[in-house]
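Slide 14.
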Amino acid sequence: MARRVAVPAGPLGDDFSFVSPVAKYVLFFFNLLFWVISMVMVAVGVYARLLKHAEAAMACLAVDPAILLIMVGVLTFLITFCGCVGSLRENICLLQLFSVCLTIIFLLQLAAGVLGFVFSDEARGKVSEIINGAIVHYRDDLDLQNLIDFGQKEFSCCGGVSYKDWSQNMYFNCTATNPSRERCSVPFSCCLRDPDQAVINTMCGHGMQARGYLEASAFIHTNGCIDKLVNWTHSNLFLLGGITLGLALPQLVGIVLAQLLINQIRDQIKLQLYNQQHRADPWY
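Slide 15: predicted structure.
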């Protein structure tokens, strides 16, 4: 025997709503927070971009941190804008777009993590390609230069595979025809740190590429940053897992809240249609 669906005996009050104010405004302020953060990211990226020379800016678009910041900021701005307006106006289309975008980003992050783990050799090669490209444009972009110096000092490394990778840079190139004063040198961030040294010697890497590994190791870090990065990754899997979870959790919360609000809005629309039909036809 088929089960009959229960129908309300009469129209519910006009002030009744299936839409939970808690879910609605939590989602709104959740998106508003990231919306403001995205605008700050775009502003900082644009400001950093405008400070650079046009020639240097065009030379290294692929590795420019300012461009990456602008792209992430614009994407976050558009997605959170849909979430803000969609939740405030109870718009199903915007909420669905917001939920779909978050789901796609979450799946792409998950796929990137899995592929990076499965195809570790290919991922290592891609990282090596990025680092070598950054080395080539080291002097062209101040932000990139500071980023490389920070990485080499933090990981106590120099270059991609070894300190001789700096020969790829036109200023540090170790060929005899290079007229640069920095020929055969490496950046000061490759040098061994002296805790008693009050003033940083920016010329400490002068001529180090012309020396052998053993001789150069007395003054600079000779190991490349790729191996150091891989070792650091293996040693900090729990930290990386926590960071990944911290990035994924807000996305999952946004998806769940959006789907919850969408279902509530649909129930509210059904209720309004039912009330309209009930008022038009009391025998309905």
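Speaker note: The radius of gyration is 28 Å.
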